[in-house]
Every structure is written in structure tokens, then in C-alpha cells.
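TICKET: design request
STATUS: open
ATTACHED STRUCTURE:
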């Protein structure tokens, strides 16, 4: 019965206009960055053609691995995207449980599937909604960037690749297999943003307003980020360690996995306490 519920919830997610709106916003930001990068590249090529390397100097050719939106460190669009990610990925489905409860949809759906199966499917699809928005946007950016910038391997001596510094997490993997590093980081980001969408749903069950369900996970994400910036615990901050370029050294995979599990357990426990023992008539 779980898979029947899962199929229904995935169908509802696919019909959500906010799913496509969120992806579209991410794509627009990615295209904006790509255009800026092409403009900068064209200006540099023009100056080199006019004055040669005497004025412009010798430089390492532009690479996919410092222009992909997660690895770009010269422009502001990556910060804009990663700042907007939490709210964008909460829009498609995080408020759906609250809406189902207010509209009486739950009472109708449990005539076909058990309440527990519906709830588990709802949690799974909410996580997937955040995952797929993030994954789609980042993969689009990677593919788009690859159409103009070659996949030249990172070189530490150039100072063009922040993730190539010695104290960066997975530094050897980035230098040896940069595409694999990038894909792994895209998956990490997608899982974390799926978690934010799930957290929004789990916090939102304590209120009856859909907009609070949508924004609760985002507000908590920002609050934790600001607190960790203030302490300062930069390498423990999700706003920092979710950026593939790694703006600060010393980021640890143990911290990333640990924080993920803590938030996941917190969210599911809150949902279990609030909704787990209810029957359909009390929802």
C-alpha cells in the first residue's frame, strides 16, 4: 500500500506548478551566471589579442571546474542561488500535508490506503521534491557550463580552484577526478535540500497555515547559519559546506553526515510525536 500512496504523491508533485517555477528560477540564475562568464571571457580574449601576454600575462585556460555555478568563486550568482535554494525547494510540496489536512483530503485518501502508508509516502515525496529541484538545477548548470568551458583538470599552483587547496575536503579526489567530485557534491547538496523541504513539512504540522509550513524549514536553516557565522563555526555551517567550491578549509564529511542525521532524526521524531498516534478522525 505504501507504493500505491507513493505513486499518488509523485503524481501530485508532478502536477505542482511550484515544482517547475522553482526549477525555472534556478535555471535563470544559472543562465545569468553563464552569460556573465562568457562576457568576461570575451573581454579577456580581446585584451589578449590586442596587447598579447605582455600586458595580460600568461594564465591557465578557463575550465569547467571553476565556472560551474557551485565552483565559481568570482561572481555573486552562486551565493544568490544557494541563498534562495531553501525557499525554492520548499515551495513545491512542503505545505501539502498541511493543505491535505485543512481540505479533508486525508479523510478521503485513507479510504483507499492506510494512514501510515500515506504519511510515509508524503514524507518520502517531500524529501524527493527538494532533492529533484536542487539536482535538476545543478546538473543543468554543469551541462550548460560544459558547452563553453573545457573540462581541464584543476591545478593547485594557479589559485583558480578553491577546492584544490590542501585543507579542503576530498581535495585529492577533486584534483584526480574533478567530475566525480562535482557529482558527489551535487548529490550532497540535493540530499541536504531535500532534508530542508522535509523539515519544513515536519515543523509545519504544528501550525495550520500553509505559508508557515513552506517557510519554517528555511527560517530555521537561515537562523542556524547566522548563529554558526556569529560563533564563528564556519566549517560547521551548512551555508558554507554545501558550496562545492569550499570557501573555508577544514570542512569534514563527518560533520556533513552528522548534521544531516541529526536534523533528519529531529524532523521525523517531531512528525511521529505530533501525527504518529493519531487516527484519521483526529487529523
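STATUS: resolved
RESOLUTION: sequence designed for all positions
ATTACHED SEQUENCE:
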Amino acid at each position: 500500500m505504501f507504493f500505491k500512496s507513493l505513486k499518488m504523491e509523485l503524481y501530485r508533485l508532478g502536477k505542482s506548478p511550484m515544482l517547475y517555477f522553482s526549477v525555472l528560477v534556478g535555471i535563470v540564475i544559472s543562465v545569468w551566471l553563464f552569460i556573465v562568464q562568457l562576457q568576461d571571457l570575451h573581454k579577456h580574449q580581446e585584451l589578449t589579442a590586442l596587447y598579447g601576454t605582455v600586458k595580460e600575462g600568461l594564465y591557465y585556460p578557463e575550465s569547467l571546474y571553476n565556472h560551474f555555478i557551485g565552483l565559481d568563486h568570482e561572481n555573486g550568482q552562486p551565493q544568490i542561488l544557494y541563498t534562495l535554494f531553501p525557499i525554492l525547494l520548499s515551495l513545491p510540496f512542503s505545505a501539502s500535508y498541511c493543505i491535505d489536512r485543512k481540505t479533508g483530503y486525508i479523510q478521503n485518501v485513507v479510504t483507499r490506503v492506510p494512514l501510515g502508508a500515506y504519511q510515509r509516502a508524503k514524507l518520502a515525496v517531500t524529501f524527493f521534491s527538494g532533492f529533484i529541484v536542487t539536482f535538476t538545477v545543478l546538473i543543468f548548470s554543469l551541462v550548460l557550463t560544459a558547452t563553453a568551458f573545457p573540462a581541464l583538470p584543476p591545478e593547485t599552483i594557479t589559485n583558480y580552484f578553491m577546492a584544490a587547496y590542501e585543507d579542503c575536503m576530498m581535495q585529492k579526489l577533486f584534483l584526480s577526478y574533478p567530475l566525480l567530485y562535482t557529482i558527489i557534491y551535487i548529490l550532497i547538496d540535493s540530499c541536504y535540500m531535500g532534508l530542508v523541504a522535509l523539515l519544513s513539512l515536519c515543523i509545519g504540522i504544528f501550525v495550520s497555515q500553509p505559508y508557515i509550513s513552506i517557510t519554517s524549514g528555511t527560517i530555521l536553516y537561515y537562523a542556524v547559519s547566522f548563529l554558526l557565522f556569529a560563533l564563528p563555526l564556519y566549517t560547521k555551517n551548512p551555508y558554507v559546506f554545501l558550496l562545492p567550491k569550499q570557501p573555508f578549509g577544514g570542512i569534514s564529511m563527518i560533520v556533513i553526515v552528522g548534521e544531516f542525521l541529526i536534523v533528519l532524526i529531529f524532523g521525523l521524531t517531531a512528525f511521529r510525536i505530533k501525527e504518529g498516534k493519531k487516527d484519521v478522525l483526529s487529523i
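CLOSING REMARK: The mean pLDDT is 88. The chain has eleven helices and no strands.
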